[in-house]
């Protein structure tokens, strides 16, 4: 059954609010009133010491009597005394005041709400007295969600209104930008258990989610049904949306005040064009957070039993991309393969394995340089092909992307170290995948 109540903001006249009772409960009510610019008249034979720091209209150190309520528009009974309550209930009709009996909702003409203040903007949460704890929890959730800059905007708009300047469209736009949040979320190589907790919470709470084609089904299954889910994946030779379209789409939803999550495979800033999106959104004035993800450049070798650094094998490593903007091939990194004690991890290089091999051999790099191709890292269809530079192209032909290529002596550790599959399956895999 619906409760017949109307949330309103009262503007009582000076001295029109009377607080009966001045113990701990009364002190709390007095503090709430003072925080809202209301100095109450307090009536009680004894007054809690905490009242000394609270702005008050006046204090009457006595038991309340009918004559004390002359001119009162709001009376708050914080005594917990049934006799006082009965007296006030009998007087309210004749005196014409609204009565609140603390913690007795059935006897209240109005309820206190849990409040948030952003300058002239106030947000009140009420349960019609059913559960103050519930309203406090909801209030605190709202506080964590809303940006503190709302106060600045509220004061700005109050100033404009007092000056006769009212532009609803401009206010709506400014508010939407302030309330919107955009997160570029790194989702790792695919295994849902490799998501960070921050990524998980953003996915569960976002209003709108735009996701790439490499986001796994297990991660997509986390998206609530209430969220708008939009595929914006890019594959070689097949882009569902251009980057400009993706940028504009994010802005379109952010301008409405939505929380937008842009899910990206791996880490947004490792060959993921995250920097371009973040710069575009920041330039447009939106709050942008970037959530780091586990890159396949690190996770891929690890789940194949290949550490990118290991004492006696590699003291440093590089991560490179075989593709540049405009589908151009990037082979400027080939000389990294000459470096001793070094691991080179190549992203987006599977289809260019022949070109990589030929360029490396032309520069005198040994055909026997250990190499490994790890495809679909951390996913159920993960494959690892251990090979050499000279046989790289042949090994690549037997692998389905997406995949990374690892060069360096650390590849030899694949035969020793545990990978994504363990036990007997690991031995079978090592024998079957060796080329």
Chart the SSEs and their pairings.
Layout: E1 17-20, H1 24-35, E2 41-43, E3 58-60, E4 74-77, H2 82-95, E5 98-101, E6 114-118, E7 121-125, H3 132-145, H4 150-162, H5 168-179, E8 181-186, H6 197-205, E9 208-211, H7 217-220, E10 228-231, E11 234-235, E12 238-239, H8 243-254, E13 259-264, H9 274-283, E14 288-291, H10 296-303, E15 316-321, E16 323-324, E17 328-329, E18 342-347, H11 353-362, E19 370-375, E20 383-388, H12 392-396, E21 403-407, H13 424-433
Task: Considering the chains and any ligands shown, give keywords for the structure.
435 residues; alpha/beta; Rossmann fold; Cobalt-precorrin-4 Transmethylase, domain 1; 4 domains; five-stranded parallel beta sheet; 21 strands; elongated; disordered C terminus
Question: How does this structure look, described?
Answer:
The protein has 435 residues and is α/β, with parallel strands linked by helices. The chain has a five-stranded parallel beta sheet, with helices on both faces. A five-stranded parallel beta sheet has the order 10-9-13-8-14, sandwiched between helices. The protein is elongated and about 105 Å long. Residues 422-435 have low confidence and may be disordered. A hairpin with a 3-residue loop joins strand 16 (323-324) and strand 17 (328-329). The longest helix is centred in the first third of the chain and has 14 residues, at 82-95. The chain has helices at 24-35, 82-95, 132-145, 150-162, 168-179, 197-205, 217-220, 243-254, 274-283, 296-303, 353-362, 392-396, 424-433, and strands at 17-20, 41-43, 58-60, 74-77, 98-101, 114-118, 121-125, 181-186, 208-211, 228-231, 234-235, 238-239, 259-264, 288-291, 316-321, 323-324, 328-329, 342-347, 370-375, 383-388, 403-407. It has four domains: 17-112, 3-Layer(aba) Sandwich (Rossmann fold); 119-178, no CATH class; 180-294, Cobalt-precorrin-4 Transmethylase, domain 1; 297-433, Tetrapyrrole methylase, C-terminal domain (Methyltransferase, Cobalt-precorrin-4 Transmethylase, Domain 2, 2-Layer Sandwich). The chain has 13 helices and 21 strands. 31% of the residues lie in helices and 20% in strands. It comes from Sulfurimonas diazotrophicus. Residues 182-392 form the Tetrapyrrole methylase domain.
């Amino acid at each position: 059954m619906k409760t017949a109540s109307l949330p309103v903001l009262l503007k009582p006249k000076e001295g029109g609010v009377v607080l009966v009772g001045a113990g701990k409960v009364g002190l709390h009510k007095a503090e709430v009133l003072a925080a809202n610019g209301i100095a109450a008249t307090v009536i009680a034979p004894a007054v809690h010491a905490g009242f000394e720091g609270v702005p008050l209209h006046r204090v009457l150190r006595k038991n309340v009597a009918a004559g004390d309520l002359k001119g009162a528009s709001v009376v708050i009974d914080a005594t917990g005394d049934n006799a006082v309550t009965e007296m006030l209930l009998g007087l309210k009709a004749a005196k014409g005041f609204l009565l609140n009996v603390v913690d007795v909702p059935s006897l209240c003409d109005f309820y206190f709400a849990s409040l948030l203040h952003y300058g002239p903007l106030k947000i009140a949460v009420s349960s019609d007295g059913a559960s103050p704890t519930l309203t406090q929890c909801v209030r605190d959730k709202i506080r964590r969600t809303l940006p503190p800059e709302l106060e600045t905007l509220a004061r700005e708009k109050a100033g404009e209104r007092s000056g006769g300047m009212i532009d609803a469209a401009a206010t709506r736009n400014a508010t939407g930008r302030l309330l919107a949040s955009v997160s570029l979320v790194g989702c790792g190589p695919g295994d849902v258990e490799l998501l960070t907790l921050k990524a998980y919470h953003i996915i569960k709470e976002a209003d709108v989610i735009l996701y790439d084609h490499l986001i796994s089904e297990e991660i997509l299954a986390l998206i609530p049904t209430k969220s708008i889910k939009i595929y914006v994946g890019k594959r070689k030779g097949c882009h569902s949306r251009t980057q400009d379209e993706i940028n504009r789409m994010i802005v379109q939803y952010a301008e409405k005040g939505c929380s937008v999550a842009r899910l990206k495979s791996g880490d947004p800033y490792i060959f993921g064009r995250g920097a371009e999106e973040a710069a575009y959104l920041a330039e447009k004035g939106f709050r942008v957070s970037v959530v780091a993800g586990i890159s396949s450049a690190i996770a891929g070798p690890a789940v194949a039993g290949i550490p990118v650094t290991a004492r006696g094998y590699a003291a440093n490593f590089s991560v490179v991309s075989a593709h540049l903007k405009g589908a151009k091939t990037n082979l400027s990194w080939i000389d990294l393969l000459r470096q001793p004690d070094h691991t080179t991890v190549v992203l987006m290089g599977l289809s260019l394995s022949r070109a990589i091999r030929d360029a490396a051999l032309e520069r005198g790099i040994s055909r026997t340089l250990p190499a490994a191709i790890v495809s679909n890292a951390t996913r159920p269809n993960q494959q690892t092909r251990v090979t050499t530079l000279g046989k790289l192209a042949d090994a690549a032909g037997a692998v389905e992307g997406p995949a990374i290529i690892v060069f360096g002596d650390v590849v030899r550790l694949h035969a020793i170290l545990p990978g994504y599959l363990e036990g007997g399956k690991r031995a079978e895999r090592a024998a079957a995948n060796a080329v």
